[in-house]
Structures are given as C-alpha cells and as structure tokens.
Amino acid sequence: MFIQLHAKDFASWRIQARDMLARQIQPDCVQWMDTLASQPSLALEYDADCRLPDPPAKLRLAVPNQFLALAKRVACHASPDRWNPLYRTLWRISVEGDRSLLSKPNDPDVSALALMDKAVRRERHKMTAFVRFRRVEVSPAPPEGRESYVAWYEPVHDVLRLAAPFFRDRFASMNWSILTPRASAHWDGRELRYTEGVGRESAPRDDELETYWKSYYASIFNPARLNIRMMEREMPRRYWKNLPEADLISELAGASYGRASKMVEELEVPRSRPRPRGAPDGSEHPSCQSPDQIRWVAEDKTLEQLRDLASRCQACQLCEAATQTVWGEGPSAASLFVVGEQPGDQEDIVGQPFVGPAGQLLSEAMESVGLDRTQIYLTNAVKHFRWKPSGKRRLHQRPSPVHVASCQPWLAAELGAVRPRVVLCLGATAARAIAGRELSIEKCRGPFDDPALPYRIVFTYHPSYLLRLEDTERRARVYREFCDDLKLASALAEQ
Question: What is the pLDDT of residue 324?
C-alpha cells in the first residue's frame, strides 16, 4: 500500500515529512508527488505494514543543518521525483541514525541529491549572470533618485528565491522586479517580496538603454578570443532569446575572422605570448617547446590534429628518453573521459594508452560493471613514459609536478575537443592535473564538484595501485570500491 503525498515546495514537503516521521511511516510506503496545488490534508489511517515493527522509544527529529540546506536547494529542482530521495535520506538520518550519511558520496540517494543540488546551484549562478533589466515607468513614481526596472527570466529550476538576495544586494539603489513563469520577486528598497509567476507578455521586451548596451557589448567583443563552443558551454543557447546582446552574436562571430586578421596585421604580437616557431628540422610544423607554445598551437584543433602536434612535443625532458608520445584514444564525443598518470613500458612501445598490466585490470573491471571500453575516451595526464634503467628493464618513475604542468595544455585540449560529461581520474597524478592541486585519493574518492568546470569529476584509485597491494583481503576491498567508482562514473555520464 502506498501513501500518496503532494508537495509544491520545501515548506509543504517539510510539514508532511515531519508528520510521516512522527507516525513512523517508512519511505517504501510513501509516494511523493509534485504539484502546484495547495497542500492537501493528510489521511489519518495507514496500513500497519507501513509502520516500524519496533519503533524507537523516542524518535529524534533533529537533522544536521547540512541536510536542511541541501533539501532547500533540491526542493527547487524541476524533477518531480525530488521528494522521494529527500524523504529516504531524512529517514535514514533521523530514524536509522546514520548521521554521517551525507559524507558518503557513493550512496545512491546521496549521489542523486548531489546531482540535483549541483544543477540547482549552477542554475542559480546562471541566473545571476543572465538576468537583463529594462527600465520602466511606473505610477506612482518612486522616490527621487530611484528608478524602476523589470526583467524576464525563464529558469530551468525554480531558483528565484535562492538568487533574489544577490540582486537585492547588487541593485539595492533601484526598484526592480524579476518575473518568471513560476514566481516573481520585487524589491522597493525596503522589502523583498514574492508573488505568483506570470507570462512573458507581462515584461517589457526592450527599453531606450538597450541600444547603448549593445554598442558597449560590440565594442568589448574581442574577435581574436572567439570560441563558439566554449561560449555555448558558459552561455547555453536557451538563454539567448532573453539576452539583448544575443542579436549581435551571429553578426560579430561572422566578421570575427577578418577583424582578427586585421588586428594581427596592425598590432605587434605581445612578447609575453610566444609565437609558434617552425620545427627544429626546418619543416613548417610548429614546435611545442613550452606550455605557452602548446596552448598557442593547440587552440581549436581536432583530436587528430592534436595527436600530430603532440608527436613532436619537446616541452620537457621526458621526450628524450621515451620511445614516442602516447596520445589518448576513444570516440571524439565520448561522455566518459578517463585520465591516468602516464604511459607505462608497454604503452610506450605500442603507442596506445592502458595496454599493459594496469590497463588489462582496468578493462576487466570495466567489463565486470558493464562498461564498453570502446565507447570511453582514455588518456594520461603525462604523454611520455618516465623511467629509470634497472638492468635490462625500464622501471616506472612517477612524473614530477613540472612534467604534469608541461603536459597540462595537451590534456586541456583533449577535454576541449571531446567535451565529456564526466572525467574519471585514476590516481593522484590525474587528480592533480584535473583539480589543479594535490589530493589524497583515499580521502577524496568519489564525485567532486567544481561549478567552474563543464564536467563532473570522479576520483578513484589507479589500477596499478591495486596490482601493488599484497594483502589479499585489502586488495579485494579496494577492487570492489574501484568497480563502484566505475559504475558511478558511468551512471553520471548517462544522465
């Protein structure tokens, strides 16, 4: 038997969730529904099977502040299923007593809430960037020195109440209203009020200041830095219809090549940015003898072009002892992007990533969790093999931070070309290359959020670490955790 409950926002869900906890109704017996209607009255008769068989003597309803903050943000998500994992998590924290549940990123409920939380926080950030106010005349006129403005915005998630305090503090000296389909916010210099949502026709479409704004936008547009793919990542096209400057993008982008060429002809290239030189053998191929030069020549290149350029990389001394550059492989539009440390002895000889013992273990783990390796892009943070001689063998040496930094532009170029949804970092070197700082995999295993990045990150062990473990029991445990991380990365990439 299911008990159907309806919630429209955090406040209505919280009231009903507390009542369900007080009545000891288990999550499996509750089906939460999303609604815009007012909160319905609660039924008072429930199936006995829905209650705890041995209820605690005193139910603790207090929950960590971290959960309350998370729940308030998740409640703004557009998914109608958001209430169910919230109630399950609340039950497990308050009734089952798992007070550290939110610190377990691999838990299915916690992971689902984290994804919704990230989407809401990102939408709030986008709202603060893409709201455009237009000046309006109102009656009665506001006090002297204050003008009135109205903005129309269509958020994917209901983030108006989360973002409104930013606009209150940023535009405290003017009266304004932000109108959305779900709700509206109004500031008059004294009070921040909320009303019901309205239609697009309620907001002005332009004002006399728009011409000046477009002129300013056109004047600061730099054609030499135009990157349409990157711009669409930061400012997706769904926002363009409500941005005045969007009308200019096509025109400015179309003329950018000619304007950029003219700028190069008229202005000397700054000395702080090195010009790409020819290859040492005198050919026309540009050299890659420093990270700055790599960034210069790698911009807007395809994976095949990048592979060709990287084959002549001389940005660090590793190229002198390695057999060849080992470039990444996989689909050019893979949703899952795997980064290891560096090629090993067999990879250096064959010229492909993850073909040695660690690569074979990775393939086995992928197969065990249902991952198709051919649909994943595999690469390394460092593209050359660092080794030291030991008799007739070449022993692996961990690359230094200098080597990681020298190769970072190649990794950034691969990420820009593939544009994955999820980046899986194998080991500390890969984590450093992606996150930009030293991290302990033991402490940071699992998903990692960085709102500034267009992809989700998951940290896990490097397969070579598993091969080095001598304790059979510990190796089995770490292997299970490794497979769990592969499954998590795969699930995130499919969303």
Answer: 93
